[in-house]
Design a protein that fits this description.
16% strand, 8 strands, mainly beta, 3-stranded parallel sheet
Length: 232
């Protein structure tokens, strides 16, 4: 049995892989069925304009006088398992800048798996501080090869649990700005978080090491603690 990558359950945002079998046809955690009495999914609106701006927010973006390439809803708390689930997937190489609206902060739990995967023309992202309860950042910026700086200041970290290939192959990424009190919660893991981020440098001068690419380097670079992040 083959399930679509944008199928998802209503209990914990579970999204099956294409190889998932009949065992996921159930209610509750790890299932793709939804009990209307326990519906927890929340939907955001996403609009990609022809000029390359991708707007994501609770309210639908005003498209007056602008050409739209793609527009649809996005499940905020889905644990997406493939790039094809996002409304802009067919136009990901047209995404040049991302604006995450302030009203997104109304959503208590947002997962970012595959959101900007292969957006290789992306150069700027604003509004990461509006994201709440982020638990999954698997391949969020994977292959965003034009991105040189990323500002994560203000982003909610308390629920973060997985950073698999989060910045993988961001070959031009030089700096990631975070709050001075940045710290990953206990239990957060992730291999190849910084895979091939060969331009990255932490605020204290730590440069990329191909043998040091896991979530363990997702710390502020300071005296006595090597990391690839910069306190801003």
């Amino acid at each position: 049995m083959k399930l679509k990558s944008n199928s998802m359950g209503g209990t914990d945002g579970f999204v099956p892989f294409q190889t998932s079998g009949a065992s996921v046809l159930k209610l509750g955690a790890g299932g793709v069925l939804t009990d209307p009495e326990y519906e927890v999914r929340t939907w955001l609106n996403a609009t990609l304009f022809a000029d390359g701006e991708l707007k994501i927010g609770f309210a639908k973006a005003d498209a007056t006088g602008r050409e739209v390439l793609a527009s649809d809803t996005l499940c905020a708390n889905a644990k997406y398992a493939a790039i094809q689930a996002t409304p802009w997937a067919s136009f990901c190489k047209s995404v040049k800048r991302v604006t995450i609206a302030a009203d997104t902060s109304r959503v208590a739990n947002v997962n970012l798996n595959y959101w900007f995967y292969s957006c290789n023309a992306l150069t700027s992202v604003s509004g990461m501080a509006n994201l709440r309860g982020v638990a999954y950042m698997n391949r969020t910026f994977n292959s965003c090869s034009a991105l040189t700086e990323l500002d994560l200041r203000g982003m909610s970290l308390a629920s973060l649990s997985s950073m698999l290939y989060t910045f993988g192959a961001c070959t031009a990424l030089e700096r990631i700005l975070v709050d001075a009190d940045w710290g990953l919660p206990s239990g957060c893991t992730g291999s190849s978080t910084f895979y091939n981020c060969k331009a990255i440098a932490g605020g204290n001068g730590t440069t990329y090491d191909s043998k040091q690419t896991t979530y363990a380097m997702c710390h502020i670079d300071r005296e006595g603690q090597a990391g690839y992040l910069t306190a801003g």
